[in-house]
Every structure is written in C-alpha cells, then in structure tokens.
Backbone:
C-alpha cells in the first residue's frame, strides 16, 4: 500500500492507494500523534509519502518514510491528476487552495507559480464563527449557514441606493459587516452571522483570484481546499461572484486531497 499524507495546520488529509483503488480520510491535526502511532503499528511495511507544514514533525516520528515533497509542488501534481480524472482540460488557469488560509497560484500544464497568499480562509471561518456564535463544529457551521440571510449584516449596493436604480447588481456586497450598525442587531441570528462570515471569506479570496486571473490572461479559476467541503453557501457565493465578473469558477471534487495525492504520485 502507498499512503500520501498532507499534514496541514488544521487537518491531516490522507490518501490510501492499493490495488489501483484510492481511499480518502481526514483527521484533525490535533490527532497527529495518534496517526503516527497507527502508521507505525499497522503500516510499518507500507510506503508513506509526506507533504505539508507538519511533514517534518511526522518524518521525525515515523519508522519508514519513502519520500517528502514541497507542499506547493505536491498540491499541483495532485490537482492536475484530479482535473484529468474529472475531464477538466484548461491550458492556463489560476487556482486557489482555500485551507486554513488561502494560497494563490498561476498554472498551466508545465507547472505552477505561487503568486501570493492570504490569512483569510477556513481558519477565519472557524475563528469568527466561534467568536460570534460559540459554534466550533465545521459541519454544524456550514449546515446552519444555509438557513441564514446576511442582507441585514452586510452593506449591499441596494442599501446604498435605497431602492433607486443601481449601476451594478444591487446584491453585490459594498462592505462585509458594514450594515451592522444601522441594522437591527437583535434580529440577527446565528445563521445570519455565519453566512456573513462565509460571505466575507468567499468574496475576499474570489476577488483576489479574479485579479490574478486577469493578470495571467485567463478566465478560469480552480478552487480546492477543505473550506469548500459540503459548504454549499460558499460555493454558491464563489460561483455567483465569478460569474458577475465573467470568470469561470471550477470546484474540484476531493480537491482538498490534492496535496496528499500529489505526495504519493
């Protein structure tokens, strides 16, 4: 068996490959020592490949390592593999890895260049959701967000124009959380607050991606990363925002495992 592990700051993404079949698994990074014990006990004869910020720590603890990869290179290899499997053929594109933070890359079939990063990402989503609602379960947060309405929290273009004709779509966000002081705070429930947080993350990273795509002369942006997993609200916002700007947003299935997959390729 071959095992690829992307040991990140929030999650451990794992790909098991045996008999031409793949199995995906994720664990919180707080369980890294438990994973190391499991690998040393049950997988000491298997080939283990590492990438990610905590790869060096795992490398020191594991009995048998067959290779380590630079995180950005591993993610690119895994992403290209998934894109091929999902019949997505794009010659030039920008991709956003929306994990704890967000990493921005310009790429083609020859390779990738990391062009920047942002502290806005899944860590922002989880941290602000905890502060605003005291919820800390990702699954609960994304499920609750679907029932929210951020119109009373975010300042939208239609708020500014007060019912008059707007030069751009009225539902575009003029200022994330910019309507809080003039809105009715008592009527803002947890679902509304979390949806507003997701809007902040989605619109911020997508806006940067659109600018990078324009500079790279492409209309295609590929999104990967654990922050998109089952996050229908974020995916809808990303696609809506990209569409308004004339850009194609591609959400890769199992994209959060690109690093782990690329590590073992």
Residues:
């Amino acid at each position: 068996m071959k095992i690829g592990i992307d040991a990140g700051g929030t999650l451990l993404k794992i790909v098991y490959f045996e008999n031409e079949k793949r199995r995906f698994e994720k664990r919180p990074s707080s369980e890294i020592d438990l994973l190391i014990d499991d690998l040393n006990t049950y997988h000491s004869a298997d080939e283990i490949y590492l990438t990610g910020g905590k790869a060096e720590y795992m490398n020191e603890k594991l009995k048998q390592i067959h290779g380590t990869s630079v995180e950005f290179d591993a993610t690119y290899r895994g992403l290209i593999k998934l894109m091929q499997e999902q019949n997505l053929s794009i010659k030039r594109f920008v991709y956003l890895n929306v994990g704890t933070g967000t990493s921005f890359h310009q790429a083609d079939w020859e390779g990738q260049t990391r062009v920047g990063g942002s502290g806005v990402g899944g860590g922002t989503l989880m941290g602000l959701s905890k502060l605003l609602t005291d919820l800390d379960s990702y699954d609960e947060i994304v499920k609750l967000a679907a029932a929210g309405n951020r119109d009373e929290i975010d300042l939208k273009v239609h708020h500014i124009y007060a019912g008059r004709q707007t030069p751009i779509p009225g539902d575009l966000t003029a200022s994330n959380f910019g309507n809080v002081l003039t809105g009715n705070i008592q009527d803002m429930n947890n679902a509304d607050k979390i949806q507003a947080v997701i809007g902040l993350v989605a619109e911020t990273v997508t806006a940067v991606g659109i600018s990078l795509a324009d500079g790279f002369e492409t209309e295609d942006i590929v999104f990967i990363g654990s922050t998109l997993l089952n996050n229908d609200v974020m995916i809808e916002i990303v696609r809506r925002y990209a569409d308004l700007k004339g850009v194609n947003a591609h959400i890769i299935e199992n994209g959060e495992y690109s690093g782990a997959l690329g590590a073992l390729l």
